[in-house]
Write the structure tokens for this entry.
Amino acid sequence: MQAVSKALIELEDELGAPLFSRRGRKVALTPLGKSLIAPAREAIASFDAVGRAAEAQLRGDADEEGESLRLALVTPPFAKHELVCNAFSQLISHALGIKTNLSLSLGSVALADLQAGVIDAMITVGGYSNPRCSCVVLGTVSVGVFMGKRHPLRNKRLLTFQDLGPYPVLYNEEIDSFNDTILTTCLNRGLSSRIVRVSTDEGVADFLENQDGYVLGVHLKALDIKPLALMHKIDPADAPPVPVCMVTLKGRQSDEVDRLNHFIRNEFPLMKHMFNE
């Protein structure tokens, strides 16, 4: 702990301004400290990505003998993500004849992996704007809401922003600060719920079960998380469909990614139907 405090003091001396305001035992980030959170996370993710790229080469993950696609799905963790990712990977591998691997990832980690060449593309729910990247819309999905079994709105299947307004909505810094997530889109459309920051699985369970909170997500049966939470649809008049996007680095888009973009755009309604059954 002493070493950490010394390193922080040295960093503040180098920057010429404090990162934390200290009042007795209470410590809070200064505006400068808050402004450095995102760049620091990106720097750490980029550093870790170098190690992952080296490990991939040593394992032979690059698949030098044939075509391959390595994709990252940038979404919050959900109960059946392994099943969904495996099903998607097998579908693309079979349809295009390209060995495909889709895995779940946080946005900052996926971006660092994209820049390091560990993955070929990111798939995001919601748009992503970055001058270094190209973002192509593959299709759209409906917005859903997840709430606990005892939530006052549990018996109402189609919800409006007015219904949801009195209840708190979950915000996760690592997820909702990266791209135009579903939460970002709904807030911009007029959702007035109080935002509660939660970062742990235990916190999410308590938020749903004991605080009458809710979580925004994609309304697809494959993503249902009964009995932990009930899934409801939000009125499209309030929450319009959210785009699902393919994000690649400019100047580094391969023929395999072009074929994948074309295939998903053509088959997106069928794929959405498959995950809704």
